Give the backbone structure.
Amino acid sequence: MTTSFRLSRATRSLRCWSSFISTTHTYFHYATPANPNVSTHISRNLFEFSKSFNTRNGFYNYKNSVRLIDAYHQLVNYTCYSTVASDQKGEKPKNSSGNEGDRSWIDVYLAEKARPYARLARLDKPIGTWLLAWPCMWSITMATTSGSLPDIKMMMLFGTGALILRGAGCTINDLLDRDIDTKVDRTRLRPIASGLLSPIQGICFLGFQLLLGLGILLQLNNFSIVLGASSLLLVFTYPLMKRLTFWPQAYLGLTFNWGALLGWAAIRGSLDPAVVIPLYASGVFWTLVYDTIYAHQDKEDDLRVGVKSTALRFGDSTKEWIAGFGMTCIGSLALSGFNANLEWSYYTFLAAASAQLAWQISTIDLSSRADCNRKFVSNKWFGAIVCSGIIFERLFSSCAS
């Protein structure tokens, strides 16, 4: 009788321990739920399990059996709900880092200490470098005399400068916007906003970036050095504009397209207003197109945080506004090309660039963050088509002569 009782009691104890270990394994196997209330429930239910065992005599405590069963079911429900449900739907869990946390070449090839600095400079997102570089390339190739190839060394210098100074602009932006970035899903995991880098580390890195940029600038003529240095005021003040006006995209256009002036000056040593002013204006209106599209990704967060953008200013009329900006951009490019004595082949490529821009505007789904990002990134092809047209025209002139 006594032996049978002991065996029964030991069997029940082993079953309970097995249940406890299995459920604990489930808890640690799955990711931590994004909802803090869920985490609280899980912790409390694990505690209920631990209380269900009398550690003093090693016997199972029957008074807590009902509470134990309830805790077990709640624990399993919470752990499964926070992970499996999102996987079955093909969605990312809410605590997924999203765009800012996707693995890239930075995670594969760079040392761990260097990764936050590379992300701060957006080295894993080259689209910003392309958008900064293309107006420089337009200007350099337009400044090339008819019958000559563009200056490859100068194009490489400007390409490197675009990479460095775009990174510096991102560092300035993240330093000034760190209080805003923590409140926006897309930006909350940026290195300074997330705490991976301190503001002091960001400032030191910015100094390093500016020194590299100065090294590039000093390779140019004196007029270009003064003209290039004068753009720093725009670079440092742009991040503040979203707090002051609904037109920060226009201010970004003034900043991002300074290379349209600088490229011509680097080749010719001066500015030709008839060419560079419409070229600069075309870049500004182009920026109003692509950055308004980009701003639609964050319009809900911007409303909640209290910052301004053309996406919020235009609202449901966005397509009409950016269509107008696109037409003005193409018209300015045509005027600049005419004043630079570019011939028919340039306008053929400009027609193709117009079609690319029209495709963006006509097919964009402004309610879809993914589609806004796709259309935004596609602008690198618009810049490439325009640049190809200028280069082709110069080559055509060379062959014709």
User: Anything to note?
Assistant: The radius of gyration is 30 Å. The longest helix spans residues 2-29. DSSP finds 23 helices and no strands in the chain.
